[in-house]
Amino acid sequence: MEQLPEDWERGIVIVAHPDDIEYGAAAAVARWTRQGKDIRYVLVTSGEAGIAGLPPGESGPLREAEEIAAAKSVGVGEVEFLGYPDGRVEESLALRRDLAAAIRRHRPEMVVLFNFGDGWAPGYANSADHRAVGRAALDAISDAGNEWIFPDLADLPIWSPRWAAVMGSKPTHAVDVTATIEPAVESLIAHRRYLEALSPDPVPDQARAIVDMSTGPIDGFPADRATGFELYYFGG
């Protein structure tokens, strides 16, 4: 298990929903911002369909505010929401175009994505939004460096990231997050209203259990706590 490359300065995390980052990559993000890296978040939806009993018109702004607070907990100050409908995201040319535009705007060397496989584990299906966003984003990385695929983006200079790292997938690389568990827990606690709807357990207990589950030791990697990623090379 190799160390994820860290010889870069700018990164973006592209996910479907508020809380996706905090369920997987927040501890790694906290490590990177402590190193002085510029990390930004791009969320395709506002998660407005994610809280039972709370209408989307109320849930969307609440979940955006929770995500902005969560980002601050790990040193991220810029969070962008693209406004796609939660639960109904399609892997489309329009989504690829919007994500390619985001990549050109933010000009990252590293793009971090959420698991976009069909399942989490044998017998556990992945979300349709996760699948659509991850696959479209992986294509959008190449699109962002090609001047001809989306010529209507000509006002944004082309940009080619060097890597994409997919969290929650089959890891090929890992990051030591032993020193950044606490900010990761705090970032998930920021999703208080969302977590309260999921379980009657105290929110801090839920958050710590989730972070503990996603940052355990990884076979072949010398760290007590680690986050694993599947790394893709783009050569930008």
From TrEMBL:
Origin: domain of life: Bacteria
GO BP term, pick one: glycoside metabolic process
Stored InterPro entries: GlcNAc_PI_deacetylase-related, LmbE-like_dom_sf
Keywords for the protein's UniProt record, in alphabetical order: Zinc
Keyword Zinc carried by entry: yes
A GO MF label: hydrolase activity, acting on carbon-nitrogen (but not peptide) bonds, in linear amides
Pfam families linked to this entry: PIG-L
TM region(s), chain numbering: none
Protein's recorded name: PIG-L family deacetylase
Naturally occurring in which organism (per UniProt): Nocardia uniformis
Organism lineage string: Bacteria, Bacillati, Actinomycetota, Actinomycetes, Mycobacteriales
